[in-house]
Amino acid sequence: MPDSVLKQVTFVGRHSVRSPLPGEIEYAAPYITQPWPSWDVAHSQLSEHGRKVARNMGRWWKIHYGPQLAGSDRPKDWIYSRADCLQRDVDTGDEFFDGFLGKDHNDIEVESDPITTPDSYDPLFMPIHTGMVKVTGLRDAMLGRMGGNVDNAIRVHRPVARSHPAHLRHRDP
User: Which range of residues forms the domain containing residue 46?
Assistant: First the structure.
């Protein structure tokens, strides 16, 4: 609408590209067809590629929303940022604001609470741990829908090996 004024944008996202969690590669091994790449960071941390992705996302938001949202010369007056306690999530927020605000990104602190007890998880980020989402019986219900065997679902959804039509084949220039 031409006479509308943007007053607020809420962005909810997850962390950017991270290295695998401990044990994740071994767990996924039966389902992958190519070896996993080597990672430049420790398990479960934001990768350099993930940092670039988060900065680029921030740049996109700056182009599309920045001019309409700038309510003050001080970004901390009009931006609020929250992440859960995991370092990859805080780093993703920092990189996002580096892309969105450039040199002014240091004015924005990505707020997060440390996890001190199992009861201190933030329900927005850890709904299962806080009991906001119940998964009791979920495994059995899913297996029941798959005929008691995960392999049935994998077999049904595995791509069929066939050649591509001529108009979709790769051609060298």
Answer: 24-116
Residues ≥6 apart with Cβ < 8 Å to 59: 99, 100
In this structure, is residue 81 part of a structural domain?
yes
Residue 108 has what pLDDT? 82
Residue-wise pLDDT for 52-85, tens only, equals 999 999 999 989 887 777 665 667 777 888 888 8
3-state secondary structure of 164: coil
Q: Tokens at residue 2, please?
A: 């031409």
The pLDDT, as a whole number, for residue 173 is: 46
Nearest to 91 by CA among 73, 70, 105: 105
Contact (CB, 8 A) for 20 and 44: yes
- The model carries a pTM of 0.67
Residue 143 is assigned to a structural domain of this protein = no
Burial track 31-50 (b if 16+ CB lie within 10 A, e otherwise): eeeeeeeebeeeebbbbeeb
Cβ neighbors of 134 (< 8 A, separation 6 or more) are none
